[in-house]
Design brief:
With about 450 residues, the protein is α/β, with parallel strands linked by helices. The protein has 4 domains: about 100 residues, Beta Barrel (OB fold (Dihydrolipoamide Acetyltransferase, E2P)), CATH 2.40.50.140; about 140 residues, Rossmann fold, CATH 3.40.50.261; about 90 residues; about 40 residues, no CATH class. Helices cover about 50% and strands about 20% of the residues. It is built from 13 helices and 13 strands. A 5-stranded mixed barrel has the order 1-2-3-5-4. A 5-stranded parallel beta sheet has the order 7-6-8-9-10, with helices on both faces. It has a 3-stranded antiparallel beta sheet with strand order 11-12-13, with no helix packed on it. Helix 7 links the parallel strand 8 and strand 9. The longest helix has about 45 residues. The termini are far apart.
């Protein structure tokens, strides 16, 4: 049985070594005191090359030696220095080698944070009971804000992040900055006053309240009741972008929309602009595709019509044949009309002879009928001649020779094909040019862009 496991009476009667005594004292302390929080001021801070941290915690009347081993020291969210007041979660122990009473530090925070958390919880419960954080009180963000307001410090890195995000996503969006302190004494009153001024001016459609990351003390201004009330009283929706994603303040709970970071707040305020820009790009691409499709359809239709188009020479042949046919029909009709009239005249003469009419009156009637017949025949011939001349003029108008006589020319390749485009030719090709009067042979020396 070891010295530690023996009854107390046996230990007092036995002579212990210094090592056994110190080990017994350490084990007794560690069993008697669980992990606990100790508050004090850091002094005699030392940082050896091992990475461990040694210092003392003191108050007005006492001090205790402390050690924080490297694996725990690397997790500290802030830098230690002499004079800093902290709260340390520690294990009470004894350093056996020197017999020194000390505490091993497991975690550390700034002094007063426990009280801050209590104040945060009390205010949160109070405002929650009033319904200040109720979801039905949250106002929707405007889809396309005409002007954006930013409540933050002019020196804050958060302002630079917001402006950079907006310049990238919505560079056309006007911005109004309401400068204020975001940390330290008077910061909460300044933030509330900036929100009040923005509400009175009504220059913006939405407000961003922003600050970069920091400790709970750095962000405490956003946990003040005045700021929460000012956000709730704002006539326009409020987006908060305070600290990092893990930081949640009373202002975040009171806001209409909470963003994880200042940059995320800017992205929320400009989200619809980005979506609209993407929609416009998609619609523009669809419009271009539809236009290309319609152009291809029309080009195919033009190609089909071009294949169905009759060559001018063929059309002229058809017109010539039709004109010749009409002329033959006109002549035949005129002859038939004259023959019919002559036959009728002969019948009249026969009837006159049979009835032996008064030749004097019959002669006058005959002369009149003959005159009318001649006039009708002449008028008919004149009308048909005019029609024939009109058809001849139309045929002449469509004749390629008439076009050539107006100053145009017809170009044929060496194989006799008509040249309609410079793309059919190459330099040094031989061509024949037909004018209104005469022809000429030529050779292509250079092709100009059409």
């Amino acid at each position: 049985m070891s010295a530690i496991e023996r009854p107390t009476e046996e230990l007092f009667s036995e002579v212990l070594s210094v090592s056994a005594l110190n080990r017994l004292a350490r084990q007794t302390l560690e069993r008697r005191f669980p992990l606990l929080w100790v508050s004090g001021e850091i002094s005699n801070l030392r940082r050896p090359a091992s990475g461990h941290i040694y210092f003392a915690l003191k108050d007005e009347t006492a001090q205790v030696d402390c050690v924080m081993f490297r694996n725990r020291a690397q997790l500290l969210p802030f830098r230690l220095h002499d004079g800093l007041r902290v709260e340390a979660r520690a294990l009470v122990t004894l350093y056996e080698a020197r017999g020194g009473f000390q505490i091993n530090i497991d975690a550390m925070r700034h002094a007063g944070i426990g009280a801050l958390f209590e104040a945060f919880a009390r205010l949160r419960a109070k405002l929650d009971n009033e319904g200040l954080f109720a979801p039905e009180r949250k106002r929707p963000l405007p889809r396309f804000a005409r002007r954006l307001g930013i409540v933050t410090s002019l020196q804050a890195a958060a302002l630079h992040d917001i402006l950079a995000a907006l310049a990238r996503r919505a560079p056309h969006l006007p911005i109004v900055i309401y400068p204020t302190l975001v940390q330290g004494d008077g910061a909460a009153a300044g933030i509330a006053d900036a929100l009040r001024i923005a509400g009175e001016r009504k220059e913006c459609d939405v407000l961003i309240v922003a600050r970069g990351g920091g400790s709970i003390e750095d962000l405490w201004a956003f946990n003040e009741e005045a700021v929460a009330r000012a956000i709730d009283a704002s006539p326009m929706p409020v987006i908060t972008g305070i600290g990092h994603e893990t930081d949640t303040t009373i202002a975040d709970l009171a806001a209409d929309c909470r963003a994880a970071t200042p940059t995320a707040a800017a992205e929320l305020a400009s989200a619809d602009y980005v979506e609209a820009a993407a929609t416009l790009l998609r619609l523009a691409a669809a419009l271009r595709a539809a236009m290309r499709r319609r152009l291809h359809e029309h080009m195919q239709r033009i190609d089909l019509l071009a294949r169905r188009l009759i060559h001018p020479g063929e059309k002229l042949k058809r017109l010539n044949a039709e004109t010749a046919h009409l002329a033959a029909r006109l002549k035949g009709g005129a002859r038939q009309r004259i023959n019919a009239n002559a036959t009728a005249l002969q019948r009249i003469e026969t009837r006159l002879l049979l009835r032996r009419p008064d030749l004097r009156h019959a002669r006058r009637d005959l002369d009149a009928q003959l005159a009318r017949l001649r006039a009708a025949a002449s008028a008919g011939l004149t009308q048909q001649r005019h029609r024939l001349e009109g058809l001849a003029a139309a045929l002449q108008h469509l004749s390629p020779h008439a076009v050539l006589e107006r100053g145009f020319s017809l170009v044929r390749a060496a194989d006799g094909r008509i040249v309609r485009s410079s793309a059919q030719l190459a330099p040094d090709d031989a061509v024949r040019i037909t004018f209104g009067a005469g022809e000429a042979d030529a050779r292509i020396t250079r092709l100009a862009d059409g």
